[in-house]
Every structure is written in structure tokens, then in C-alpha cells.
Amino acid sequence: MSSGPVTYLPLDTDDQCQRCKEKRAVLLSRKEKFCPDCFVFFMRGKQRKLMLDERYKVKYGQVADRLGVQKVLLPLSYGASSLVLLDMVASLLQEQNLAHKGKQGFELVVVHLKEPNLSGNASDNSETDSDFASGGKKFKELALQYSPVNIEYHEVDIEGAVLTAAMKITVNNQFGVIALPSSSDEAEKRTIGDALRACATRSLQEDLLSLMKNELIRGLSLKTGCKTIIYGHSMTRLANEVISLTVKGRGLTIHESVINKSIEYNQQELQVIFPLRDILKAEVIAILLFNEALQKFLLPDAKPGSRLAKNMTVRDLTTQYFDNLDATGYASTASTVVKTAEKLAGPKEPQQGTCDVCGSSIHHQPQKWLSDITVSIAAPLTTEDEEEYARQYGTSEGSAEGKELRVCYGCTVTLAGSGKQFEWPMRATAQEIIDEFVLTDDEDEGP
Amino acid sequence: MSSSADLPRKDRKIKPSALCELCHGRKAVMKRPKNLQKLCKECFFLVFETEIHNTITSAKLFQKGEKVAIGASGGKDSTVLASILKTLNERYEYGLELVLLSIDEGIKGYRDDSLATVKRNQQQYEMELEIVSYKELYDWLMDEIVSCAGIRSSCTYCGVLRRQALDRGAAKLGIHHVVTGHNADDMAETVLMNILRGDTARLENSCSILTQSSGSPIKRSKPFKYSYQKEIVLYAHYKKLDYFSTECTYAPEAFRGTARELLKGLGAIRPSCIMDIIYSGEHFVLAQKKKVTKSYKNGRDKKAATAEDEQEINPDGSVALKTTKRDGNTCEKCGYITSNKICKACVLLAGLEASRAKASVDGSEEGAAKLGKTLELLSF
Fold this sequence. Notes:
- The complex is a heterodimer.
- By secondary structure, chain A is of the alpha/beta class.
- Chain A has one domain (6-300, 307-376, 398-441): HUPs (Rossmann fold).
- In chain A, 41% of the residues lie in helices and 16% in strands.
- In chain A, β7 (166-171) and β8 form a beta hairpin.
- In chain A, α3 packs across α11 and α8 (202-223) packs across α18 (429-436).
- Chain A is globular, with a radius of gyration of 24 Å.
- In chain B, the strands form two sheets. Chain B has a six-stranded mixed β-sheet, with helices on both faces. Chain B has a two-stranded antiparallel ribbon with strand order 1-2.
- Residues 1-5 and 299-304 of chain B have low confidence and may be disordered.
- The N and C termini of chain B lie far apart (60 Å).
- Helix content of chain B is 43%, strand content 10%.
- Chain B is of the alpha/beta class.
- Chain B has a domain at 44-282: Rossmann fold (3-Layer(aba) Sandwich).
- The longest helix of chain B has 19 residues, at 154-172.
- In chain B, β7 (210-213) and β8 form a beta hairpin.
- At the A-B interface, α8, α9, α13, α14 and β12 of A face α1, α7, α10, α11 and β9 of B.
- β12 (344-345) of chain A pairs antiparallel with β9 of chain B.
- Chain A: It holds the Pfam family CTU2.
């Protein structure tokens, strides 16, 4: 661990922390030696710097009247980054609460999206099930640490959500995405989890699931009255996201997916912030290491499924790539990538509409682009035998007819790869899930 | 009716699932790397060629009667390019006059063999061939450059010099258009590398199919921009094209290597990823630069340097004269297009000249590449 971005010093080191000059240093990060307290303080500063806006401060008088009660949504996966962000933000609120006699800069709302078990192996998710079936029991224990701060908590079960508006989606040879309404009784039994498991590869599953999560989180922020969403993504994770989006043909959305900005969602203004964007993944892990109370809530990162190359997802591969760069002393690549992404803007061309599947704006004609370079015309048949085969083939398969959807490039390619007659809901379905499947809703409980 | 059709059908019955997914009449022989479609040879040839035709026509690459030089190395990409351009030129009546243009970098055991392939291609495709060598242009062989500058920077030198050599070769033939065999994999790699290196200057235009500049009469284009490397190999294989398949013996570019590895892994789980990356790359748009207010950036110092006060120092230590940089600037030394005072090739060559004296003059005519190859062949 000598060349990584964080170097842990041996326990018997004589080096002192370069900040407080009192305690023994435990690690070397950004060319400075830190004791645990100073390191965590230094890192918290980075989060606070990104949430300096007035709306997150304790407000009095006119400012308070103008801004009202601000609510902030934090999606919590119980992974290292989102736990660390929760700890930082809740500690900030605790400080504010104690210093201002119960007044806080904002109300915190935490949402946990229960991910479907995609490995098809029931034992893999057993831990998740037992921990979360209790309806946020685990979270109540976690939130106690930040008393008297009251944190609103919700869980959404993606697995069990039923596909009511399920559409069978077929992508034809010209890359038109055709929706075929599926027979009603059959569709009602299918859930999002079923649909994802029917998807051809893990990589495509991941893409669809992240679209669904993104939509759910935005929808939930509206439902809970939050005007800000804070994500726990570290710098490394954001760099990863930039590369993943590029690889998935969603490069057009980079400027709105990894940059702090306000977006418009269903006619409402939403602030999206990544408060850990200046912190590397290795540093997040270090922060967690110094916080034993937080560590026990960490959900093991063990991804189910084999590590066979063909079972990897795009994100697995890019994560591996950045891990390798970290280990070989090129940790600065992550920062370069994120900074490059910050310089990107949206397309110059006027918007033609929004994607029926993911909701991103469409500025070009991806179907035309695709069909120009992926031609599907047949070479003429020359013998009678060949013509006979073609005649027989023609009767065995009918052609697809249905409503043609407006779909962005990334979704078109993902759906084309997911297999024939793949079922996936249109974007509007996310709202139904939010309306029906909020499992725990403990906002009425007092502190 | 031919005699084969009289044979009992059952003996040769092809299952519907084994039929070509496009014509449904012939047996599929391959899975198309781009989308895993099962295709017969005939349909593969047709779609592959048509896609390149589409790329050429939608970018309006050629004009009727144009004389076009094909940058030919003897490798698979340029051999297939020559073959396909000949086919398409005849099929769609582009009216092009095609010429093969090869560069002899002077790498023993690599380029001399591949040039032999190009010479055979010349006969096969009945095209004119022009060979331009580094030796005659720059008075250096790549082997000498490597022994002088080291093997690690070999691609930097070779790349810069070849780009210029191609232009000079084309100019010699009075040709204004050079086509190269850069394929989709190369494009995708470049897009990834530009992001990983934060090369915003190249980010927006890294995928343009045609590059030209007002300072150079020669434009270059990449008709294989959307063609997968694997499909080019398959095309060459099924068409039984004659190409040279050894990679250059000097070190590959290290950083490109990591991007290539990543791309290889991604291609295995998402065959469309090469196209997807190019789609992303084609649509990257840089945000307008935010204006930095001088007073904010350097508030205390009222005499903050403005851009006009800055002095540009050239790599050779001289001070640049005040000229506005613009597209179409040319090298003061050789007249080649450059964005600086002196072009990169001249800078590199000047550096080499300085150290030529230090290079060993052991009379050996064999370069490091040849030596490497000989060592490879040794067995115990």
C-alpha cells in the first residue's frame, strides 16, 4: 500500500500529525501526515465547502422567510460512501442543532432503495433481507448517534414492484423501439426484479437498474418535498461514472449526471450535489476506518455473481481500471476525469423531446445514426434452395407491430441488447412505484 | 436446375436457427462482432461494405474525379481499405483515382517485410504505388532514432514524422486527399484516452472523420471510422486478402495500452461499446469558458499580467514574435502546418541532431527491432 493515494503509517511511528502537532500521525494523504481527528476534520471541510449555500445554513429573519424549511434527500445504500456522507451531514446538523438551540439549517430525509436480487441465488441476499425486513430498525439505531437531530427515513423495495404498465419492447432492425402492450393478466404478476432477471447480461441489468434508481430518487425527492439531493459519490466513483456513461453511449448526459447543478424535474427546481466529489474512494474508506460506530452498519460490498470476465458489468470493469491506476500511482487520473467532465456542456442542437425510457433529453436522431452504420440488408439469394429456406423461415416468425417510442441512444442500445420481447416499463412507472411501495414512513415519530 | 439441388433435401437440411439472420436462405457462418447477429458470408460482405459506403456518402468524403492516396502499410486495415475502396469505387461509381502511398520508416525486420506486401497489393489492385522513406525526407531511419532517443519514445517520433511524411508524399504526387485505415476501435480508444488525460483541446473533435486545415492543401479522412477491427479481420479472412500481420516491434504507446486493455474487457461484455463510445465522443460539447475576472483572480496585484504582456518561449529557447495564433500557421523552418512557430517534427529532429554524435557508430546495420525478432526466434 505504498503507492496508493492513502498510505497508512506503521503503528509504532514517531511521526506527529502535521495539523495539530500533538497526536501521533496514522496516515499519509495528499502529502501530509494526519492523526484520525484532523483527517476527518479535513475531509469534512471538503463536504462543507460544497454545501456552503445559504439554504443549508441556519437561517433567521428575512432569509428564513424567503427560503422556508429546506429539506435534503440523501440516498443511502449502506455502502462506505453514502454512510460517510450521512455521518458528515448528520454531524453538521447535530452541531447546528446544539449551537442554535434546536434550529437546523435543513431537514434530512434518507431513502434506501432495496435492490433486487439479480444473481438468482437466494442465499446471496439473505443478510439484506433480515436486516431490512424490520422496516428501518437498523436505521433507527444508526440515527440515534445524531440525537437530537430527527432524520426522516424511507425504504423502497424495487424487487417487489409490480410492472403494471409493462410493455414488451422490441427493437427492430432499423433500431426503432416498438412497444407491444403485453397481455394484462400475465403482466400483473411480473415485478421489476423479474424483468431485470430476464435481461440478457448483467451489464445491461446494471444499466437499467441505475436508470430506475435515478428516476425513483428524483421522484421521491418531489414526494418528500426535498429540493436538494445529495449523493455520496466519491471522486473516484464520479470518474467511474463518467467513463461508464461514455461507454454506454450516454456521454451526452455526463454534464447533468456528475456535476453539481440545479435541474428541472417535473416543473420543480432540484439541486443535485455530490458533497464528496473532492474526496477519493481510498480517503472515504479511511474515514470509515476511524469511525467504529459507523462501520457496523456497512453493507459488505461483496457483489454476488462470479468474477468471470463475461459476467462483469461496465461499472465492475471501470472500477477495476481505476483501482489499478490507484495502485500504480496514477490516482490523479480520477481527478483529471472529473475535472474534464466539469467542462462539458449539453448538446448545442435544440431538444427534440425526452426519452420514453430514461427521461433524458433527445437532441439527435440516434436511430438514423445507428442504422447508417449497422445495416441490415440481405444479399440476394441465388439458388432455389436458398429461396426455399427463406420461404420456410418467413412463416415461422411474424414481424413486430406496435407503437414506436421516442428513445435515446443509450436506451435503444441497451434494449436492443436485452433480448427479443424484453419487458421493461416506461418512465412513468417510477411514479407508481413511489406511490405504492414506500415501505417505511416514520416521519411522524418525534425525536 | 443444378445437380446438387437434386440431392435429397433431408441430408443437407439447415435448421432455421442456423440460418443467416438477414437473408434466411443461407447457413450462418459467423457471429457479427458488432451486434452478435448470425450471418452468412455474402450478407456480411454486403452489410460491411454498405456501412462504409454510408459513412462515405453521409460525410460527403469524395468528389467525382478526385485523386485519393490510400495510406498503405501492408497491415490488415489498409489492405482491406484498398480492397473495399476499389470495390465501392466501381460499384457506386465514385469516379476516384486511387493510389497507394507507403511510408518506409526504416525499421528492419518489420517495415521491409510489410512493404513487400504493399508491393503485392499494388499488383492485385492495379494501383499506382509511391513509397516515401524517412531516410530521404529526414535523413534518419527509425532504427537510428530509437538507438538515439530510446525505445520508449519511439512512437512519439514515428507518429509525428509519419503524419508529415504522408502529407509530403501526397504533395509529391499532386494529391490533396489521404485516406487512412483508422478503425472504430482506434477511435474509441482515442475518445477514452482524451477523457482519461483530460485533453479538452482534442475532446470535441476527436471523432471527426475528415480533418483539414487552411494551411495545408491535404485533407485526411477515415472511412473505417465505424468499422470494428474484428470485422476488418473477418473481412480480410473471408476475402482471402493478402496482408502483413506482425505488429511493430518497438514498444507500443504505454497509456494507449491501458485504454486498449479496458476496451477489450468492455467489448467482451458489451459488443456495442465501441459504437457507443464513438457516439458519446461525437457529441461531446465543451461548455463556454467562464470569464475569470482579473480583479478577483489577482486582486491585490493591480499590475496583473494581461495576456498581451506574456512572452512565449520557444522550445529552442528563443522568444516568439508577437503573432496571433490561427489555423493555417506554418513552420518557420520547413513550411509544414503547425500551431506553433516551429512544427513538432522539426523540434524533434533538432533534438535528435544534437544527440546524433553521441549515438553509437558501431557499423551495425541491424536495428533493435531486427535484434528483438532474432532473439524471439531463438529456442533452447
